[in-house]
Structure formats: C-alpha cells, structure tokens
Protein: Transcription factor
Amino acid sequence: MEELISPTSSCSPPAPPLPFLSFPSTPSPLQHRLQCLLSSRPEWWAYAILWRVSSDHHHHHHILSWGDGHFRGGHDEGGALVDRKRTIHAMLNDDNNSEITTTDAADCVSDVEWFYVVSLTRSFVAGDATVPARAFASLSPIWLVGGHALQACGCDRAREAQLHGIETLVCIPTAAGVLELGSSELIPENWALVQQAKATLASPGEAIVGMPAISTSPSLKKDSMAVAGLSSSVDSDHSDSDGGLMTGRRPAKKRGRKPGTGRETPVNHVEAERQRREKLNHRFYALRSVVPNVSRMDKASLLADAVSYIKELKARVDELEMEAKKAKKEFVVVEKSSGATTSTTNISDSTMVMGGTMEMEVRVVGSGEAMIRVKSENVNHPATRLMDSLKELELQVHHASLVSMEELMVMDVVVRVPLGLQGEQESLKNSLLARLEKE
Structure:
C-alpha cells in the first residue's frame, strides 16, 4: 500500500494527514443514481466513482477530481463487512485502547476497498496518460479486462487497480463527468452498460449542483476512517461535503482550485466535441455509401478502401482518355518555312450528297494554301469523287490522308489554291460541294 500514497505516485501528491471524517446520514441524489446503476446491472461491480470536471484558472487546463462514489464490495463479503466496521468504530470511540490503531483499521479492509478509499485523494489533469483523463479527452469509453490489459495500457492508475485485485476497469465519459467502474471479476465489454450509464447521468446540472459527498454505505465509512492519517489531503470541494470534521486541523486547499467555478465551460467543450465527432461520423457514413467494396467496418479500413477505389477510378479515366485520343485524328497544320505570318479561316458546312450526309470544312492556311476536311459515309467511293472534284478545279494536292472508321470516312487534303480562288474560301467550298453533288 505504500506505493499508493508515496510521493512518486503519478496522481496527486500527498498532503498533511487528514483527520477522521464524519459522513452525512442520507445519500445525495448522485449517490443514489450510482447505487441504482450498480444494483440494476447483472454484472457485479465493486465500486463506482464519478470524476467531476473543474478548471484550473492559473494553468488553464481541466482537472478531474472526486465528485462522488458508491462502494458495493465483492460477492463473498458478508459478515466481514460488519466486523471491519466494528473494528474501526472501536478505534474511533476508545481513545485509550492502544491495541486498535490506524494500521489495524487499514489491515482489516480489503484491497479493493482500500483502492476505492484512496481514490478520494486523487485528481487527474485532462490530457495526461491516465485512463479517466484519456476517456474525457477522447469522449469514448475505455474498457480494460484482465491483468494484461491493465498492465499494458501504460497508466499508473490501471496498474494500481490491478495490484489491488481489480480485474475489470471501465471509464465512461458522461454529461456529469467521467464514470469509473471497477470489478474483481472479468467482465466483457457491454454497450448496454455504456448507454445506461450515460442515461443515468444525463442531467449534469442535477448531478453536479451541490457539494460532493462520500457514499454512506458501511464499507465506505470504514474505508475513509482507515485512510485517515495515511492518504493525501482532500481538496476544498471534498472536505466541505463531508458534513464536518472531527478534531484535527483542516486539510490544506490546493492552489489554483476554486470550488463551483469553471464547470460550465467543460460541459460546453464536451458538447462541442460531441457535435464534431457526430459530424465526422456522418461524413464517414456518406463515404461508406459510395465505396462499393469495404473490407472491414473500421474507419482506417474504410479510408484505405476509399483510396483504392479512387485510384481505380483515376486509372479508368486515363484509359478512356487514351482511347478517345486514338479515335480522334488531329488536323495537319502546314506552316510556311519562310516564317511569314499565317492567317487561318475556318468554313464548314454540311450537305446531302448521293442520299447521304457529307460534312466539309475548309481552312485557309497562310498564302495560297488550304486544308480541306470532308466527312461522309463510306459509300460510292467518296475519296475518288473528292479527287476528281479537286482535279476539275485545278487544285494541286500537297498532302492527303484517309481514315475509315466503320461506316464513316474522314479525308484530309492540303491543296494549293489557284490565284482566282485565293481569298474566296466560300467560293472554294461551294465549288467543291457543287461538283460532289453531281458525282
């Protein structure tokens, strides 16, 4: 037990010894909620602790400290609870009895009870590696089952819990704070418990208003008496709720902690974080709806599958673009080597020739040259008819290309325009169409 109260503990450092505490006779509404939650569950939870959120205005961070708790004990504890309670009361009521000491009281409690009572003095800074702080920061429940999981999580509190016989440690973020549950049994994850805990503590105002109080169960009374003189000091929030102190000095207040302040800001922060996570989840749902094949349902696998699907789509687009380039024939542009300024004029038209549609485009390039493109159905030898028309017009052919695609023929011809037709692009086109129609 010395390591739990030594100055090297990762939790709050110890302060001067506490005098023995007296407890209120009636449980607070929050205590009643915790008690009802444990008694309504089929699993056997040894204790429940609500870590309440407050603000440190000097260091500008949130602190999780004891808000309230309820101790239930184990299955096998019956008359032993009464015997331990009688021992501690005898120690308190008989000052002359030297045989009953504080050490005797500490020895008569179980390890789980001792761990629960010492938790009264603990506090955690939001953002550190402890399980309650991690649950508060992530807004997600943390469920540790078995000694290996408790040791491997890298948290001093989880390791202390395992040393004191805790086999299952759960931290659930709620509107009232972080609910910690501990059991000496192996309890698998249960989503229904998480939802029930959040619903039970869904009214943060009612749960937080009022000073925290220690559970009035007999086991909690005797545990708190046993920890007196050995554990760390309790901050002012806790000491005021204990219903008064017996003889002894008042525990010192921690610097930078003000009761009753900085509570609404964490609640608003939690709500904003919850809304952000809901929006993120909706976007993951939308992404899931458009990805056809998902290997697993976790977010990392969904993102990996989405990346693979996008790469597949991109490869398909590249393939289609290559096919389109192969099907498209670029115009051949002839430029004079003299470097003279080139002017280009496009004239296109379509007409019915020999019962089919013929499309003609005339492009004048530079001085005395023109490029003619003719698209027509591949019937009645359209290339021969085009060459005959060019011969009749005395147009000298410099370059010609023919492309046949199924029932369509595309003919590109570069010709030298005679002096009589230079600058008369419309006349050249009309002359060609007239001769092609006669063919």
The domain at 2-253+261-275 is CATH 3.30.450.40 (Beta-Lactamase). The chain has 16 helices and eleven strands.
